[in-house]
Write a structure and sequence with these properties.
By secondary structure, the chain is of the alpha+beta class. It has six helices and 16 strands. This is DZANK-type domain-containing protein.
């Protein structure tokens, strides 16, 4: 472990250390966002920890540079993520994924064609049990915040008509929509029962992506906008919250050390000697403790001028200048800390 830490310290001291950390963090973050985060609860949090601490331990310790890196990540990571997502969307049609209800009373919901018809005309079909008197199509466009859901004011519903029956007795429902505006859509179906001319809420199917009523360039731009917003909301906010907490912690620690040093440092007398602020005993500049009362001093490393022989206290006893252990006058090694004396 010590060898690993020393190797990491050596890398972080190089000019290219932070760059290497950013590259490693970017690769891991892409894998997390593309393959893992959608499947686990804390995926975004793990990603935030990766993009903050890997560059940090590789030498990117300036909070200004960490802030620049965070903004760059929000703007640049969606570029490869959007390309990846676009390929997933186009491959969706080949996976034979249908919109179906959990109880399987509404099945095989689909749209034809899936990708960019010439005049924006798309036909939606679904199979439903005979108990449903009404079947509706719900369709919603994507936005910067992802796919809209039913009932939020952005989705639209259309009544469907029966087109026959399947061999197992289900009704086939369909509806054709013309002149859809360019966008990437998602859709679902709802089966309803009618009781004395009033509709009763029935069963919803799962939401499925489609149709894709725009060319590949426009689709990429749509996905990029969505991805940038999602990365900013789910990654960016957590990242800058973590950075603020780390900055506050470092600032508080520095203030504490400054206050402690101010209170505990030996005071310089008019004759140029230094005295313990607690018992006023004379001490050496840079002394880490008072040999008379044992007071510990916060010492500035630049001021340390430690002798290489044991220090003589007020009672003619000798002490280690490093740890304060009582030693013999002619001691060559401190039994407390191992410091060697000349």
């Amino acid at each position: 472990m010590a060898g690993y830490k020393s190797s990491l310290d050596a890398i972080s001291s190089k000019k290219w250390g932070p760059i290497l950390g950013i590259v490693i963090a970017s690769v891991i973050a892409f894998i997390l966002l593309a393959y893992i985060s959608p499947s686990i609860c804390f995926g975004f949090l793990i990603c935030v920890l990766v993009i903050y601490f890997i560059p940090y331990y590789f030498g990117l310790k300036s909070f200004k540079l960490l802030a620049v890196w965070g903004i760059a990540f929000i703007l640049l990571m969606p570029i490869p993520l959007s390309y990846f997502s676009e390929n997933v969307v186009y491959e969706y049609e080949d996976k034979d994924i249908f919109s179906e209800s959990k109880d399987k009373t509404i099945i095989n919901g689909t749209v034809t064609p899936y990708i960019e018809s010439e005049n924006g005309t798309y036909t939606f079909t679904v199979e439903a049990d005979e108990k449903y008197d009404v079947v509706k199509l719900w369709i919603a466009p994507t936005s910067a915040f992802g796919i809209y859901f039913v009932g939020n004011g952005h989705s639209s519903s259309y009544s469907m008509t029966t087109e026959g029956k399947t061999e197992d007795g289900k009704n086939i429902w369909s509806v054709t929509l013309d002149n859809l505006s360019p966008n990437m859509y998602s859709y679902m179906f709802e089966g309803k029962l009618v009781d004395e001319s009033s509709e009763i809420d029935g069963e919803f199917t799962s939401a499925v992506i489609g149709p894709i009523n725009e060319d590949s360039t426009s689709l990429y731009v749509t996905i990029y906008k969505t991805t940038v917003t999602n990365v900013a909301l789910y990654i960016g906010l957590l990242y800058f919250l973590l950075m603020f907490m780390m900055y506050t912690n470092r600032r508080n620690r520095e203030l504490f050390e400054q206050q402690r040093a101010k209170q505990s440092r030996p005071e310089e007398g008019p004759d140029g000697t230094f005295h313990c602020p607690k018992c006023n005993s004379e001490v050496i500049k840079g002394q880490k403790f008072c040999p008379q009362c044992g007071e510990s001093f916060a010492v500035d490393p630049k001021e340390v001028q430690m002798p290489s022989a044991p220090f003589k206290g007020a009672d003619d006893d000798y002490f280690c200048t490093e740890c304060g252990t009582k030693v013999d006058e002619n001691a060559t090694v401190c039994p407390g800390c191992g410091k060697k004396f000349e």
